[in-house]
Amino acid sequence: MSIPTSPFLTSIYDYMLTRHYAKRTIETYLYWIYRYILFNHKAHPAHLNAVHVEKFLTYLSVKQNEAPFNTKNSASFSKYFI
Question: Is the domain defined by 7-81 classed in CATH 1.10.8.870?
Fold first, then answer.
């Protein structure tokens, strides 16, 4: 896995790495956080709220049909780093 180029994603990567998260977990969380940022037109997560998270999760489950339990959970858990 390559280190993200975004300062925000890099800080999350560093945080998770220093707390000994599994590399696959880090990759998964960064993937979902990145998708969340893109979904919100590249807005910084500090400027977004729970409504944006709900819209993103709804989008995944309804529009993208990406709502198997593990996918939704991964995306949902990623919000704690946003």
Answer: no
